[in-house]
Write a structure and sequence with these properties.
The chain is α+β, with helices and mostly antiparallel strands. The chain has helices at residues 2-28, 74-82, 97-105, 122-130, 135-145, 151-168, 191-201, 205-211, 237-240, 282-298; strands at residues 46-51, 57-61, 92-94, 119-121, 215-221, 227-233, 246-254, 258-267, 270-279. It is globular.
Length: 299
């Protein structure tokens, strides 16, 4: 009888020893602790996420690889405009035929559908730039805020301001050769640089208010002195309406850029901001952003 009891105790002790050994072995081989957050897999070729409040990196994938940025370039367009000294957001700009011709000449690029002769305020042009991603609005702003006696000189000057601003922000892997992302061989950035740019731009209350707007209707004065309404929806609507706490910021796409998205959201006082470049579709870039936001908030 005593022998049986001793044998049982031995078997129990052996089981405890085996279990303890298994735990130690698992720890030795790097098993994830309970409650650990799994790093997401994204379709995009590159991605970067940071805690906007602290600047801490939360995620990176090819974060410093230069890529075409598409219309995410317009974040810088808006930032340069909003940085102008003595800026009057209610100043009007007359829409020129060159702006609408530019849309046609570039294979019917994304447009705010501005009508020649209309008088549109700077603020309204910023909405037209950031919501429907209007390349015509971008052209109008570059023409308005560049320096020079000809339109070409003013556009060149404005793009120069974009690059000077990039340098001042320490965006060492960023260069612009267009005001809207329709590049000419030297328009590029990285997920890390674009995230830093967006973080800086979001410090401006006007920019922040615009990029979180899902839809707007704006009244403008026509050439004849009457008025008309423009209604614009945000190209970032899938994320703005499909993820709680989203506050912006900008989509981008193109044959070379594929599908890009700079995004930001705030929950419980924490703001997560990031970028995906060269994702595989509109749906994929939105899904990528949601995954990265979830990951950022879970850390």
């Amino acid at each position: 009888m005593n022998i049986g009891i001793k044998g049982t105790r031995f078997r129990r002790a052996a089981a405890v020893t085996f279990t303890t050994g298994a735990v130690l072995a698992a720890a030795a081989f790097g098993a994830a602790p309970a409650g650990a957050v799994t790093t997401p897999t994204i379709a995009a070729a590159g991605g970067y996420v940071m805690n906007s409040g602290t600047g801490t990196t939360l995620y990176k994938k090819a974060a410093d690889t230069r890529r075409s940025t598409g219309s995410t370039t317009k974040i810088m367009t808006a930032k340069v405009v909003l940085a102008q000294s003595n800026l009057n957001l209610d100043a009007t700009v007359t829409i020129r035929s060159a702006y609408s011709d530019y849309i046609v000449d570039n294979n019917y690029a994304s447009s705010a559908h501005l009508i020649v002769g209309d008088k549109v305020t700077v603020r309204q042009l910023l909405y037209g730039l950031m919501l429907p991603s209007g390349c015509d609005a971008a052209y109008a702003l570059a023409d308005k805020f560049g320096s020079g006696t000809t339109r070409a000189e003013r556009v060149k000057s404005f793009i120069g301001k974009m690059n000077t601003t990039a340098q001042s922000l320490g965006l060492t892997n960023t260069h612009f050769d267009s005001f809207d992302g329709i590049g000419h061989g030297a328009n590029y950035s990285t997920p890390r640089d674009l995230t830093k740019l967006a973080r800086s731009a979001m410090n401006n209350s006007t920019f922040k208010s615009i990029v979180k707007t899902v839809k707007t209707t704006q009244k403008v004065t026509t050439q004849s002195g009457g008025y008309r309404y423009y209604t614009w929806e945000n190209t970032n609507k899938p994320l703005l309406t499909g993820y709680t706490g989203t506050i912006g910021v900008k989509t981008g796409s193109g044959p070379e850029a594929k599908y890009c998205l700079v995004f930001a959201a705030t929950r419980d006082g924490k703001t997560v901001i990031g970028t995906v470049l060269a994702s595989t579709s509109i749906d994929a870039r939105t899904a990528d952003a949601k995954k990265l936001l979830n990951y950022g908030f879970a850390l």
